[in-house]
Automatic annotation (TrEMBL):
Tagged with keyword Metal-binding: yes
SUPFAM superfamilies: (Trans)glycosidases (SSF51445)
Biological process annotations from GO: carbohydrate metabolic process
Pfam family, one: Alpha-amylase
Family label: Belongs to the glycosyl hydrolase 13 family. TreS subfamily.
GO-annotated molecular function: maltose alpha-D-glucosyltransferase activity; metal ion binding; transferase activity
Sequence ranges assigned to domain Glycosyl hydrolase family 13 catalytic in this UniProt record: 11-439
Native source organism of the sequence: Corynebacterium pseudogenitalium ATCC 33035
Enzyme Commission number(s) from the entry: 5.4.99.16
Sorted UniProt keywords: Calcium, Isomerase, Metal-binding, Transferase
Membrane found in the keyword field: no
Domain of life: Bacteria
Protein's UniProt name: maltose alpha-D-glucosyltransferase
First-level EC class: isomerase
Length: 496
């Protein structure tokens, strides 16, 4: 078993977590200020979303310089200090790298536009035919209608999976591949414990194919892994690959690709089961996913900084999910729902706890999205996915203790805070903290197979994980199972 099998991960966005002093956006120093809190909660590994130099047109996933930190967030020294302080506490840190594309502000792209025969001329995917690769889907359906955008300067189109200001790097160019290893070394040498590789299924394009999880992409993933194994054998690589189940498995291979992959197949099934008061969708997806190769682990999650994605579910399921969780079209982002966990659960604390219990006991290591542990609300008037990225609420002071000044990027939503829940043993925050402690007390949950248990009740999901029998009631009815009675949306972890 490796450290990540049993680690509890916590995702924070630097700009939204905590500002130091009177800064108007969150900072790395702010994160350092809150490490006591994360340690108290029981977090083992902090995951920071991109904090690099960026025009922030995609909240930092549009990187303009892979080697520097956005000045709003602080300095390289602050980052080094953050790593040191985490490690001193016995905690770990992973960061996020978007390697599929850069910002159009990146000097490579600027050079590529102006100097087609120069060293960066072939760094991006240029072409004369905007109809090429018709099989490749548009992902950001709210704003883009094509994966090609015309560039006047170069007199050609460039290819992009996401926003038109995020040109895709050309992985057929060995010089691009070399840059990736330089970037990896630079950040890993700072002492990181892991990396999330963003949008990793999309590196290559080939005529006639959908351009996702291509053999060339998988081969490059194997190169990254063997590089990591040689130089940073303790670090974990986690894939963001939002693909159908069988394709998702390709990112593990036989264990020679990623150590971890986010469990996109299971995530929407949990919400679907709640909407239907029926555990069947969860049983079926667990059945469909094969056991993982040695050394591998799922990254289990309920929410993250993106929309609750529904790209990979069948049309009828998507419709059902929109009906159940999208009362207002304003809350939709691309092919999904931009809402936080508590509002998705209609403010019903019992459902939120049920979801946290699933997060802690299903196969995988749990990833908690900042703020969900206090049931933070969202602001659905904000565009794109910003509804779920508002400042963390620390206390009841003005601006919720995020800063002494009004935050300049996103407003504070308000309604609850860490301080308001800290001393209340029955609060959601303390319940989540106890669940994390329970999870740590059962290390079997890191690797034990998940054996489905027939409960005789459509609404109740049962599975055995090592020495625990886990029961989850997806309905609003009390259900008597004989040895145990589950209240509405009740859950139990029993000795097996
Ligand atoms: C990933 C990120 C998302 C971003 C996209 C493009 O899916 O999670 O936030 O917008 O990549 O970089």
């Amino acid at each position: 078993m490796s450290w990540y099998h049993n680690a509890v991960f916590y995702q924070a966005l630097v700009g939204s977590f905590k500002a130091d002093g009177d800064k108007e956006v969150g900072t790395l120093r702010g994160v350092i200020d809150k490490l006591d809190y994360l340690q108290w909660l029981g977090v083992d590994c902090l995951w920071l979303s991109p904090f690099y130099a960026s025009p922030l047109r995609d909240d930092g996933y549009d990187i303009a310089d892979y080697y520097s930190i956005h000045p709003d967030y602080g300095t390289m020294e602050d980052f080094e200090e953050l790593i040191a302080q985490l490690h001193r506490r016995g905690m770990r840190i992973m960061t996020d790298l978007a390697l599929n594309h850069t910002s159009s502000d990146h000097p490579w792209f600027q050079a590529s536009r102006t100097d087609p025969t120069g060293p960066y001329g072939d760094f991006y995917v240029w072409g004369d035919d905007p109809e090429r690769y018709p099989e490749i889907r548009v992902i950001f359906t709210d704003v883009e209608t094509s994966n090609w955008t015309w560039d006047d300067q170069r007199g050609q189109y460039y290819f992009h999976r996401f926003y038109s200001h995020q040109p895709d790097l050309n992985y057929d160019n060995p010089a691009v591949q070399e840059e990736v290893f330089k970037i990896l070394s630079f950040w890993m040498d700072k002492g990181l414990d892991g990396l999330r590789l963003d949008a990793i299924a999309y590196l290559f394009e080939r005529d006639g194919l959908g351009g996702e999880s291509l053999p060339e992409t998988i081969e490059f993933v194997e190169k990254i892994r063997s590089f990591m194994d040689t130089h940073y054998p303790d670090a974990v690589l986690i894939a963001e690959a939002n693909q159908p189940p069988a394709e998702t498995m390709q990112f593990y291979g036989k264990g020679e690709r990623f150590h971890m992959v986010f469990n996109f197949p299971v995530m929407p099934r949990l919400y679907q089961a709640l909407a239907l008061a029926d555990a069947t969708p969860v049983y079926s997806i667990l059945d469909e996913l094969p056991a993982l190769p040695d050394g591998c682990q799922w990254g289990t999650f309920l929410r993250n900084h993106d929309e609750l994605t529904l790209e990979m579910v069948d049309d009828d399921v998507r419709e059902l999910m929109y009906e159940a969780f999208l009362p207002d079209d304003e809350m939709r982002a691309h092919v999904g729902i931009a809402r936080r966990l508590m509002p998705l659960m209609n403010g019903d604390r019992r459902k939120v706890e049920l979801m946290f219990s699933l997060l802690m006991t299903l196969p995988g290591a749990p990833f908690i999205y900042y703020g969900d542990e206090i049931g933070m609300l969202d602001d659905t008037t904000l565009p794109d996915r910003y509804a779920v990225r508002t400042p963390m609420q620390w206390d009841d002071s003005e601006h919720s203790g995020f800063s002494t000044k009004a935050p300049s990027r996103l407003p504070v939503v308000g309604g609850t805070s860490v301080a308001a829940q800290l001393d209340d043993a029955t609060s959601l925050l303390n319940t989540v903290r106890s669940m994390i402690a329970e999870r740590h007390a059962h290390p079997d949950l890191g690797t034990a197979p998940c054996e489905p248990v027939e409960t005789g009740e459509e609404a109740v999901l049962g599975y055995q994980r090592g020495d625990l029998l886990c029961l989850h009631n997806f309905s609003d009815r009390s259900i008597d199972l004989g040895p145990v009675e589950l209240g509405p949306y009740g859950y139990a972890w029993l000795p097996a």
